[in-house]
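Sequence only, no structure available. Ideas?
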Amino acid sequence: MASKPGILTEWPWTWLGNFKYIVLAPWVAHSTYSYMVKDKSERDLTHLIIFPFLLTRMIHNQIWISLSRYRTAKGSNRIVDKNIEFEQVDRERNWDDQIIFNGILFYIGYHYLEQSHYMPWWRTDGVILTILLHTGPVEFLYYWLHRALHHHFLYSRYHSHHHSSIVTEPITSVIHPFGEHIAYFILFAIPMLTTVLTGTASLISFAGYITYIDFMNNMGHCNFEHIPKRIFSIFPPLKYLMYTPSYHSLHHTQFRTNYSLFMPFYDYVYGTMDKASDELYESSLIRKEDAPDVVHLTHLTTPESIYHLRLGFAHLASEPHKSNWYLWLMWPLTLWSMMVTWIYGRTFVVERNVFKHLNLQTWAVPKYSIQYLMHWQREPINSMIEEAILEADDKGTKVLSLGLLNQDEKLNANGELFLRKHPQLRVKVVDGSSLAVAVVLNSIPKGTTQVVLRGNLSKVAYSVALALCKGGIQVFTLYEDEYKKLKAKLSSEAGNNLILSKQGTPKTWLVGDGLTESDQSKASKGTMFIPFSQFPTKKTRKDCLYNSTPAMFAPKHLENVDSCENWLPRRVMSAWRVAGILHALEGWDVHECGDNIFQVNKIWEAALKHGFRPTISK
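Reply:
I predicted one. C-alpha cells follow.
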C-alpha cells in the first residue's frame, strides 16, 4: 500500500479474494459459446484465443518467479544482498490482477471495435508499426510518466507501493495500484490500438508485443544479472535499446535514476542514468555462487508440496502447507512435476538464509514421502543423500542437517550409513535428535507427573522416555510390544517409572507416527498431544489440544525468511533444522547421527542463547 493511498488504489475485485477470476467468467463463456455455435466460416479465433493467452501469460510469469528464486537462493550473479520478508510476499501476491484487468479490456475492445475481428496470424507492416510506436511514443511517454510518478504528490499516493520492494522479484514489476495500471495500459495500448484502427493488426503482433512487455518486465526485476556481456560487445548500441536487471535494480535502490522503461536511451538523453550502472553490471556478472556454512537437507512430502516450495507459488510457500481445493484442478501439471522429479536425480537449492555470520541453505531431495516407504527406492534415495553430503563437503560446508525422512532409521540408520562409508568427512552430519528431545521435554506442562508415550518408537522417543523415567515422571504405554522395547533400553531404577496400562491414562500424550484414531479415542477430554515425530499428528479429537511437531521460533535477525517450513507457521523452524545451525554457531566439531545423541541440556541452552524461542509457553 502507498504511504498515502490515492483514489483507485484498490482493485475492483479485491473483495472477491481467491474467487476474483469469476469476473472473467461471463466473457470466457460468451467467447467459447459463440465460437462453438457459429458456422466454421464465421468462427473468429481472435475472440476465442484471448483466455488461453491470459493463461500463457500467467505460466510465463510463474516460470520467471521460480527461476529467479532458484538463482537468488544459489547466490551466483546476485545483485542486491538485502532480504525479502513475508511482508513483501503478501504485498505482491496479487500480481495476476493486471492480467485479469487486461483480459477484461481485451474483451471490451473486441466487442466495440469491429476492426479487431478476424485478425490474421501475421502482418509484417503491423509488426513494424508496433516496434516503431513502442520505441518512439511509448518509451518516451513512459519515461516522463515515470518521472512524474516520482513527484512527492503522486509518489506518496501511488508509486511508493511499487518501491516498497527494495529487493525486486519478477512479479514486483506489476505490483502497482489500480489507478497506475490504468495509466500503463493506456500507454501500452498505443501500438495495439493504432494497428487495429489502421487495419494492420495481427494475432502475432498483439501476442508478441504483450509477451515482450511481460518478458522485459520480469527479466528487469530479477535480482540476479544474466544478460551476457558479449551481446553488448557484438552490438554496442544495444546498451541504449535494452536494460539489464542490474540497471533497473539501481532505480529501486537509488530512486532518482534509471527511469526508462526497457530502453535506457532516454536516461542517456536527459542525464538520469546512474553512473554506477556499468560497474554494478560488471560486478554482478562475475559474482560467484554462495558457499553455504550450513545445509539443511529436506525432501518433497506430498505431490502438491512442489507448489508450496519457495520455488513454487510464492503465496503458498509463505503459508503453512495445507491442501487447497484448486490444486486438484492442476493435476496434469502435478503429474508432470512428479515425472520430472522422478527422472531428475540430484538435490536442488530451495532457500537461502543468513544468520549472524553464517550462510544457510536448504536443499531438497526430489523424492516424495511415499517413496521413502518403498524398499526398492532406498538405495537411490541414499545415493542422492550421499551425493549431497559429499557436495557440501567439497563446498566447505560446516554442518549438514538431515530433515524429515532423510534420517530415517530404516533408510540409513539415522545417517550412520554415510559416516561408515566416508569416515574422513569434514562436514559434520547432524540428525538433530538432541534438540527435538529438548523441545518435547520442555513442551510438557510444569507439574506433570505422568505421560503417555504412543507411536512408532524412534531415536527421539527412546531418548524422551529415558529422560522422563530418570527424572521421576511415569511413562505409560498402551501396548506390550512398545513396553518391552522401552524396558530393554532403561536401567532397572528408571524402568520402575515405565508402566503398561490402557486405563486411567494421563492427560499429556507424547505421540509419534503410527498413532491411530482408535488410540486417540482412548484419551480423556482435554488431553494434550505433543508430537515427537517429524510429521504432524492427524487431528481427530475436537476436545483435545494438538501441539506442532518439535520446532522453535526463529530469532528476528534470521534474515531472508519469506516461506514456511512445511506445515509450520511463519518464522518457525523444525528442531532438526535448528540443531544444524546451533552446531555451526557453537563450533561443535562432532557428528550427531546413528545411536549418538548430543547433550540435550547443552543444545537447549544454546538455542535460547542464540534467540530461538519455544513455540509454546509452559
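Residues 124-149 form the longest helix (26 residues).
Hope that gets you unstuck.
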